[in-house]
Amino acid sequence: MSRRGGAVAWVFAAPALLVYVVFLVYPAVSSLWFSFTDWDGLSPTYHVVGLQNYTSMPSDPVVVQAAVNNLIWAVVTVVVPVVLGLALAVALNGKVRGKPLLRLVFYTPAVLPLVSVASIWGWLYNPQYGAINAFLRAVGLDSLAQPWLGQDSTALAATMVAAIWLRVGFPMLLYLAALQGIPQDLYEAATVDGATRWQRFWHITMPSLKAAHYVVIALSVIDSFKVFDLIYAMTYGGPGTATQVMGTWMYFNVFQYNQAGYGTAIAVVITLVAIVVSVPYVRSQTKEQTT
Amino acid sequence: MTIAPAAPATTVPETAVEVNRRPRGGIGATVLMTLAALVWISPLMLLVITALRPLADFVSHGPLSWPHSLTMHNFTQAWDIGNFATTYRNSTIVLVLKVPLGVFLSAMLAYALAKLRIRCGAAIMYTVFLGLTIPIYITIVPVFVMARSAGITDSLIGLIGPYLAFGIPFEVLVLQSFIRQIPDEIVEAARIDGAGAWRIFLTIILPLAAPALVTVLILDAVATWNEFLFALILLNSDAHKTIPVGLLNFQGQFSNNSTGLAAGILIAVVPILIAYTFLQRWIVGGLTAGAAKG
Q1: Measured between CB atoms, which of B108, B165, B247 is closest to A23?
Q2: Is B187 a member of any domain?
Q3: Coil, strand, or helix at residue A2?
């Protein structure tokens, strides 16, 4: 069936494409334009300042801090959930009772609004009434009780714990689906040959999950660049600027400091990084769909 | 890279069945996994217990104590002060206006990409998939400017366009890969019988794609219900806030009332938790199918 749809196909495609272009593509490109201006976000006029917003970024200590935080965030909230998710998936794929319920539990945090996750963890971390400090005091570790979100040394790590809590479920589900596709006879043959459980994992499970690793890691990395809600609702970038990431610092510049031009430049930088990192994934997926 | 089971109609149930089919047993692993699950769910369990106890009981006995008495007072207090009647209504309005429309438009595009051999199909798909990687905040300044010049800031209507646009990539991704697997012979037979593209879409494609449509509807509803950033920048007045933004305000007001805060958080998440518990097989199937095949 080589006949092309022609006009009819475009009638079906047009409405969604129109919405997509007007509310996503155009704003994204338009942000690129604003990033070359000194617009404050309110005035009717502005000047084109070329690359000034970009060249002044390295001397903004908060941008540097936000970029470092984004990097730490990307590494920790990708690696830990992926490793834990894989471990849970392998365990759930083995001889365990109550699998549907266990799977339900580990994925539950992922369906909650991020603001509510932030509220829950802010509540657990509360220095005075929080359950975490109460637990530490109860087991005699009073000296470890501290204002987790209120001090530079622990605030970022504390937000990442919340992120790990909510992000373990997704890799677990994908790995579980992939594990169920590995033929059982591979394991049976290896067992007959005397392979240990560990050898079976490294020589059968891991190679068979190659495709799953790729998808899980690509999607987790893409997701990590989008971090905004959790930080905003949990620490508001603070204390001071200790937990600022590019997304929140962009927001503060635009909506608090009236520096829309500079703010969009920050967003452009992180978006370009996200796109560059994810292009191989997008390309491979498109190719797979169309061939 | 097809990780999930490939047959379209069975993708979702098969995952669930597979889990049950494996041999049972493994006491050690079961105990270990149960403990891990208890740790994982403990913040939510603690939230429920705290929300049900009087504030005085919480303050005098500490957050980890067993409640001496139970009360619903926290919920009524949080419901009123948190303005939840309004935020619930607003979130529901957005959900009803946005989700069915978004899924329908995405299904149309998916049909064009999968079955109508649209010109530049690969380029369109590439552009749409790239949307999955775009952080929302790159668009907020222009979206805010557009809403202001259209006079729809602080209006729920202003959310619909951006919400539709950011939902389209994932919806199209899942739907087109599903529709692609519908045999061409069925479509061709209908065409020979004289059915037009619309008729084929409405009477053949949509019914056959029902499992994928349900999955996408649910996932899109969850994402819409939870969306925060656009709602934060576009809505100002309390009368127009959605649940995530309302919860944020509430959190600020109740920072010294732990039991009331717990009740408010629960009020905000209970519909999602209930929906997830009953619809989880669709969510799980959709996530694995979307990620693995698209």
Answers
A1: B165
A2: yes
A3: coil
Residue in A closest to B270 by C-alpha: A112
Q: Residue B294 and residue B291: Cα distance in Å, rounded?
A: 5
- Rounded to 10 deg, the angle between the A61-93 and A152-167 helix axes is 40
Per-residue H/E/C for chain B:
CCCCCCCHHHHHHHHHHHHHHCCCCCHHHHHHHHHHHHHHHHHHHHHHHHHCCCHHHHHHHCCCCCCCCCCCHHHHHHHHHCCHHHHHHHHHHHHHHHHHHHHHHHHHHHHHHHHCCCCCHHHHHHHHHHHHHCCHHHHHHHHHHHHHHCCCCCCCHHHHHHHHHHHHHHHHHHHHHHHHCCCHHHHHHHHHCCCCHHHHHHHHHHHHCHHHHHHHHHHHHHHHHHCCHHHHHHCCCHHHCCHHHHHHHHHHHCCCCHHHHHHHHHHHHHHHHHHHHHHHHHHHHHHHHHHHHC
CATH classification of the domain holding B127: 1.10.3720.10
Range of the domain at B123: 82-293
The number of beta carbons lying within 10 Å of the beta carbon of residue B272 is 19
Q: What's the predicted TM-score (pTM) here?
A: 0.90
Residue B31 in any domain: the answer is no
Residue B10 falls within a domain, yes or no? no
Of B1, B109, B162, Cβ closest to residue A16: B109
Residue at B49 is within a domain? no
Taking only the tens place, the pLDDT of each residue in B208-238 is 999 899 989 998 999 999 999 999 999 999 9
Contacts with A111 from chain B: Cβ below 8 Å: 222, 272-273, 276, 283
Determine, for residues B139 and A28 on separate chains, whether the beta-carbon distance falls below 8 Å.
Answer: yes
Place of tokens 């006949």: A3
- In 3D, which of B168, B276, B261, B172 has the Cα closest to residue B225? B276
Looking at the complex, report in whole angstroms how far the Cα of residue A153 sits from the nearest Cα belonging to chain B: 22
Indicate the residue of A112, A263, A270 with minimum beta-carbon distance to B272.
Answer: A112
In angstroms, rounded to a whole number, what is the distance separating the alpha carbons of residues B236 and B43?
31
User: What 3-state DSSP class applies to A37?
Assistant: strand
Q: Taking CB atoms and an 8 Å cut-off, how many pairs form between chains A and B?
A: 341
Q: Residue holding tokens 């970024």?
A: A57
| Subunit contact A119:B283, Cβ cutoff 8 A | no
CA–CA dist A28, A20 (Å, integer)? 11
A165 to chain B: nearest residue by CA?
Answer: B40
Residue ranges per structural domain of chain A: 33-290
Determine the residue of chain A that is closest to B187 in CA distance.
A1
Name the residue of chain B whose CA is nearest to A247's CA.
B137
Total domains in chain B come to: 1
- Convert the pLDDT of each residue in A112-154 to its tens digit: 999 999 999 999 999 988 999 999 999 999 999 999 999 999 9
Q: Nearest by CB to A173, which of B58, B109, B287?
A: B287
Give me the pLDDT at residue B5, please.
Answer: 34
Question: A33-290: CATH homologous superfamily?
Answer: MetI-like (1.10.3720.10)
Q: How far is B4 from chain A (nearest CA, A)?
A: 6
In chain B, which residues have their Cβ closer than 8 Å to the Cβ of A283? 126
